[in-house]
Amino acid sequence: MRNVGTYVQVSTTGEPFKAFVPAPLPPEPPLALTAADRDLVERANRALGRLDGLPALLPNISLFLYAYVRKEAVLSSQIEGTQSSLADLLLYESDQVPGVPVEDAREVSDYIAALDHGLERLRGGFPMSLRLLREIHGILLRSGRGSTKAPGDFRRSQVWIGGSRPGNARFVPPPAESVVECMGALEKFLHGDPVQTPALIKAALAHVQFETIHPFLDGNGRVGRLLIALLLTADGALSEPILYLSLYFKMHRQEYYEHLQRVRTHGDWEGWLRFFLQGVVETAEEALDTTRRILALFDKDRRRLESLGRAAVSASRVLEQLQRKPIAGVQELAKELKLTYPTVASALDRMKKLHIVKELTGYQRNRVFAYAPYVEILSEGTEPLG
Questions:
Q1: Which of 21, 126, 153, 298 gives 20 to 30 Å between its CA and that of 176?
Q2: CB atoms within 10 A of CB 3
Q3: What does pTM read for this prediction?
């Protein structure tokens, strides 16, 4: 029988209840992988390798990362209840008013800032650690609804998942006094103590353990999903943070929650691992397919602009800038490209007639344009949850 953890009696809220304290990683007894499981691990590693080769396909990896990271931020935040779409986020970043409360767009923007901070720290030689997770959490919750939920600090009170109180909750994470000890054990596991664990399996196990400990008052889901990308980058499995599982978790969210719970109740780490690795395979293949479609779109639209004659030069420069940032105002584009306002406005009007861009405001002045076909590809799967 696998040791999944222990239940402890707590009565801090006026009624007694039991909170779950997970056993430290790795699972004991160890994972029992079948031949089919090992084949799936190999498939996932190959998919990860193909994804890591993505920069070689792209003329500019920063274009892809800019858009892909934003898609992930939108999806991960939607799982937590925001209604912000990718277009809303891009409008917010261009100092335009999004179609949802600004607070929602700001939360998504903070997610990007938290990821960027984590990557910068790791690349600077800082270890994956509890301190780094607290720093990331502090940025994630620095504004908006989570700003009153102790940003950057582990919780000092009980939390629960589902239900109106711990006594009727679906799951009750460890008591507050156990959080630091549980997280300390997780940190040791991340550093290869007591055993070294392959990167993909480590990321899979660590994600569940983090979500089970639920160390923060708010933002645990988002930090737990960021942890996967950061771990794979820190361990050298990916040179760039280009594997994000939020769309897979969103599309299979009921199954996702059930797998997390079965680990806690039955020690079914193998079932979770199969689900996770299948997500890696599907997500990596989708990312590669999306990249090929984006490159084909860029090439097609570049060739279409050649029909504009002399105007093609300025229009091509505007298109290149919209590939970097697919929603922008005329003034913003003129400033970035060091072109006159009339030149940019004329180029956009020509591109609008070719159905390459779409005007979003309907204004005569301060017009904002979207590279619509590009935004459409990027937005696939990011419709807010009902």
A1: 126
A2: 12
A3: 0.93
